[in-house]
Design brief:
Layout lengths: L2 E6 H5 L3 H14 L6 H11 L4 H4 L7 H18 L9 H10 L2 E10 H10 L6 E5 L6 H11 L7 E5 L2 H9 L3 E5 L5 H6 L4 E3 L4 H5 L1
Parallel strand pairs: 1-2, 1-4, 2-3, 4-5, 5-6
Length: about 210
């Protein structure tokens, strides 16, 4: 295997999950801050891909309030996180890529234990699944870890994501950024560094 698809967790794991997360974020933030829903959603969309504890700092610099909002968001998220189904085409696309000798690694801003628990309920044929580990084992470091573990160059890695942050991470590492429309539109993904745009995961079958 000489190439690797590095796939953002929200792409392969959830149907309509982002919309649910937006609502959870709005409820958590409004419990402590008097901000309009539109402002909260805008910031959440633009910073998706970061840990929520980092996202909320774009709304307030009060560390204590940030901690409270983050804890509230975790409670809201955990109510729905583990029951969300896979995208219908996720398993088919992953099987195709693996059959064609691509490594498939999954990345998430969610805690590692949450990723592991989710995959116990919704198994996927993956070579590796990485989540966030304090203090800073995030998607940027995930890419470094993957390249070192499998002895790959950045040119052998493709990162499929659905947020501007995902595209910026990939661009920063010199990795092909494949943006999936859904969380934001194509223009936002392109402006953040997407080198390729897809509407559905199945499009990968026709490209690679």
């Amino acid at each position: 295997m000489s190439s690797c698809f590095f796939v953002n967790f929200s792409l392969t794991s959830f149907r309509c999950f982002f919309r649910i997360l937006v609502k959870a974020a709005i409820r958590a933030v409004k419990k402590y801050l008097n901000l309009p829903d539109e402002k909260i959603e805008q910031v959440y969309r633009e910073t998706t891909g970061m840990p929520f504890s980092k996202q909320v700092t774009f709304l307030t610099k009060d560390e204590e309030v940030c901690k409270k909002i983050t804890e509230e968001f975790k409670k809201e998220k955990n109510k729905i996180f583990f029951e969300c189904p896979l995208f219908e085409d996720a398993e088919e696309v992953i099987k195709y890529l693996r059959d064609n000798e691509y490594l498939i690694c999954l990345s998430s801003g969610a805690l590692q234990e949450s990723v592991d628990k989710y995959l116990q309920r919704h198994p996927l044929q993956l070579d590796l699944a990485l989540g966030f580990k304090p203090p800073n084992f995030n998607k940027l470091l995930h890419m470094d870890f993957i390249m070192k573990k499998f002895e790959l160059s950045n040119e052998e890695l493709a990162f499929v994501g659905d947020s501007p942050a995902d595209m910026r991470y990939a661009k920063h590492k010199g990795v092909l950024a494949i943006g999936k429309i859904g969380t934001v539109d194509a223009e936002m993904l392109k402006s953040a560094g997407a080198g390729m745009i897809i509407k559905d995961l199945k499009e990968l079958v026709n490209i690679f």
